[in-house]
């Protein structure tokens, strides 16, 4: 087989990542040993959590090693196999990283059915982002029909799924997104009840108008002023599923002015990492897959072409330039 390309972490960013933090390398295809298989990756998933892994600071997972293939979810096809559980032609999803091909022993790799669900969706609505939405909504927020949910980054891969799943449960969904185009998509295409444009400069007032009966649950992806605004509108005994803090991924301080609301409204706040709850994945993925196959869960993808485009696409993701799930098409 011809050599393939991969991207490694060449240096740790100071503040915002740059393209210089990555290095493109050409690698020879290794010979397969018994129990191994080779995957040709078709899609690479880009996600905000990767920024945290690029740092050496202590976190919930080990830092990305320098001069090694950058971590990341992948979806592709088995092109060679000496593994009893995988055959050439199988569609698979795993964590192959920023690389065109992945040598695997099968650990963490799962076969997927692409007859009704596109392969790329297994990195989004029927993958880790979808499961993040499913877990936060069903295991932490546990809202009742008629209550109000506020979702930040509502047009993104996670936020868009949260709001739609909530609507299917009879919950009122209010999104927060950046720009009129994204807000229109959240309401007109995804079916949210309202969406507030945080870039319009009237976040507190606009969110209060969008949630006149207050907020009973917050699915938080951003933190900072967006989280502040939502906390200020909470009802008594509201719940918060803290999923991400995009506002602070480059090391910025994240002030919280509405902290008094945590006590005054007796709020339950829980941060979570969805990969720590793998016991829920079979149920969640089955439900998400059915909804996508039946066109009851919509999603949108931003697709960069070719592995060399991954660094700029990742930088754009952290700046909110993507619309929906950010992918890189590798083939």
Automatic annotation (TrEMBL):
Single annotated GO MF:
oxidoreductase activity, acting on the CH-CH group of donors, NAD or NADP as acceptor
Q: Which residues form a coiled coil?
A: none
One short Pfam name that applies is ADH_zinc_N
Keyword set for this entry?
A: Oxidoreductase
- Please state every residue range assigned to the domain named Enoyl reductase (ER): 18-328
Q: What is the name listed in the Swiss-Prot or TrEMBL entry for this protein?
A: Enoyl reductase (ER) domain-containing protein
The species this protein was found in: Pseudoduganella lurida
Source lineage: Bacteria, Pseudomonadati, Pseudomonadota, Betaproteobacteria, Burkholderiales
């Amino acid at each position: 087989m011809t050599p393939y390309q991969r991207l490694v972490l060449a240096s740790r960013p100071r503040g915002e990542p740059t393209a210089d933090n990555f290095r493109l390398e050409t690698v020879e295809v290794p010979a397969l040993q018994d129990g191994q298989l080779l995957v040709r990756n078709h899609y690479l998933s880009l996600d905000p959590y990767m920024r945290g892994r690029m740092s050496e600071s202590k976190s919930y997972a080990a830092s990305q090693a320098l001069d090694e293939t950058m971590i990341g979810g992948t979806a592709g096809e088995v092109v060679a196999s000496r593994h009893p559980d995988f055959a050439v032609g199988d569609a698979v999803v795993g964590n192959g990283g920023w690389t065109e091909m992945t040598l695997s022993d099968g650990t963490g790799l799962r076969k997927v059915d692409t007859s009704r669900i596109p392969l790329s969706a297994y990195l989004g609505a029927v993958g880790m982002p979808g499961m993040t939405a499913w877990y936060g909504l069903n295991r932490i927020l546990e809202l009742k029909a008629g209550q109000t949910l506020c979702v930040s980054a509502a047009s993104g891969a996670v936020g868009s799924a949260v709001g739609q799943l909530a609507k299917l449960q009879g919950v009122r969904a209010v999104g927060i997104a950046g720009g009129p185009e994204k807000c229109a998509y959240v309401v007109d295409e995804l079916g949210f009840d309202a969406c507030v444009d945080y870039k319009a400069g009237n976040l507190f007032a606009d969110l209060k108008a969008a949630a006149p009966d207050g907020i009973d649950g917050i699915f938080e992806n951003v933190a900072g002023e967006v989280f502040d605004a939502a906390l200020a509108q909470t009802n008594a005994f509201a719940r918060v599923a803290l999923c991400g803090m995009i506002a602070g991924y480059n090391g910025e301080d994240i002030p919280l002015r509405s902290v008094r609301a945590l006590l005054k409204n007796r709020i339950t706040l829980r941060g979570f990492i969805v990969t720590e709850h793998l016991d829920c994945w079979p149920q969640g993925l089955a439900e998400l897959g059915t909804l996508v196959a039946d066109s009851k869960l919509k999603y949108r993808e931003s697709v960069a072409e070719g592995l060399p485009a991954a660094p700029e696409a990742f930088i754009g993701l952290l700046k909110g330039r993507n619309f929906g799930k950010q992918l890189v098409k590798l083939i």
